[in-house]
Predict the structure.
Amino acid sequence: MLNQVVGRRRELELVRAALASGAHILLEGPPGTGKTTVLRQVAQARHTPFVLVEGNAELTPARLIGSFDPALVLEQGYRPENFTDGPLVAAMREGGLLYVEELNRVPEETVNVLLTVMSEGEINVPRLGRIAADEKFRLVAAMNPYDSVGTSRLSMALYDRTCRISVGYQDAEQERQIVELVAEQAKQDLVAEAVELARATREHPELRSGASVRGAIDYARLVPELADVRAVCADDPQVGLDAALTALSGRVRLHESCRRSADDVIEEIFRQVRAARLARDAAGGEDRPGE
């Protein structure tokens, strides 16, 4: 079951070992690198609930912990049965794996609640009392170290209470495997081009961050559909360019010094990748792109 995750054996081993040791975890890595998939697989292997929380500026302590139903409180008072557990309390009670995405987008007061639970293994909720975490409860927080918009720096207190695991992009062959698994109908040469395009965005000097394998998947899916709509060959260069702009331009971030648009950069990358592919085909080369 754990081998459903492509190219993540080391990360799976580290996560499983850290959780088994009693540690909480901080996962650092860009979007689309399989962090959520890894944790879902681990939670299934541990036979524990998996509770996912999207980190953002609206994640207040009350939303994380839970709250009393106002109508029932007016009628019956502050009874335990009138309290609705938030994701944190639910995971604590059930001994689940609480996964908080984009932790560096979460307000500081909410992060402080998590720090208390990690340190004390319990939380005191006003008018409800003490809630102790089940011994199987673990917190895994994730953050994208390359994203600085709308984020804040995490304190050393949090790093001190977690084991940090870095998750980078898979290699080209592993990304091709992922695209082939998801875009089942895509031909091999299209899969290879999709992966090469996505990987090229991560190395372009004018881009602060590039597209994940999700961009490659969307490109591989979009090309044949767009060609069918236009009733042209899937190798049509305009089909490829439009698919690349649609699948990749929203997933990249420009450097502040860049004077061009994301569309301009993606078009440049597409033309370079397509030209290289045509040159290989003309030369009769058998090497796959990216190798």
Notes: The two ends are 29 Å apart (CA to CA). The mean pLDDT is 90.
